[in-house]
Amino acid sequence: MFDLLPAPRPTEEPAPRLSRVLLSPWSRFSLLVVVLLGAALTMLLFEPQRLIAEGWPPQLTGGTAAMVFGLVYGALTVAFVPRPLLNLAAGALFGAQTGLAAALAGTVLGAGVSFMLGRVLGQDALRTLLRGKVLTAADGVLSRHGFRSVLALRLFPGVPFAAANYCAATSRMGYPPFLLATGLGSIPNTAAYVIAGSQAASPTSPVFLAAMGFIVVSALGGAVVAWRKRHRLGQSAPND
User: Fold this and answer.
1) How many CA atoms lie within 13 A of 133 on its CB side?
2) 163 and 115 in contact (C-beta within 8 Å)?
């Protein structure tokens, strides 16, 4: 009898294959890198540090100016612009109260955008890179005690703001606890920098000196806490 030829396997359609490639973890991670590089390049071109020297555009005044500043603040933190510089600018431009409100709004906005970008575009790929003992332990701490951990990170400076946002995005921490911890924990140091910026014209005033003293003390406290946390993480990390 004649042997039947095996039926040819159906070839996969190019569209689904292309979709899987574009939505793969590493493709999304590459997109995240492109977005961050684009944001950093935009920051370098526009030089936001000129706000401190040249002031806010005269066309914007009052609450509108503070609102726009908060939006710009959030966008710049996504591009890794240091928050102390922006907080000083907020105080110098708007005074202590309005500057603090604008800076905190920008802080939460920037943290939320960074967390969302890291969670959507980079989480799957970045989690595969958590090979070391300390990183694995840190991921576990953020996943189990996210609110408390992020609150401590914001209260005691030392970890770069944007880096902490993307690191938290790789964990299983929820969005609301992350934003709440960021907002509450950022108040003390943000207020200190904003007050220092508002009193920059009087560097010998008691208010300015008190604000700078708080910044120095909190930085030292953050270094001590970071060293102790790193020591504990190294002890609690699983053995290979």
Assistant:
1) 11
2) no
Phi, psi of 84 (to 5 degrees): -55, -40
Helix (H) or strand (E) holding 85: helix 83-117
CB 124 within 8 A of CB 153: no
* pTM summary value: 0.73
- 1 secondary structure, DSSP code: -
For tokens 């005691």, the residue is 156
Q: Rounded to whole angstroms, how far apart are CA atoms 137 and 91?
A: 38
Q: How many helices (H) and strands (E) does the chain have?
A: 12, 0
34 three-class SS: helix
Of the two residues 231 and 72, the one the predictor is more confident about is: 72
Distance in angstroms (rounded) separating the CA atoms of residues 76 and 5: 64
**Angle, CA 17 vertex, CA 37 and CA 9 arms, to 5°:** 160
Q: How far apart are CA 190 and CA 46, in angstroms?
A: 24
The encoded tokens of residue 3 equal 């042997």
Residue 204 CA, chain-centre distance (Å), reads 33
pLDDT range class, residue 139, cuts 50, 70, 90: low
Name, in order, each residue with C-beta under 8 angstroms of 32's C-beta and a sequence gap of 6 or more. 117, 118, 121, 122
**Cα separation of 71 and 41, whole Å?**
18
Average pLDDT over residues 144-158: 80
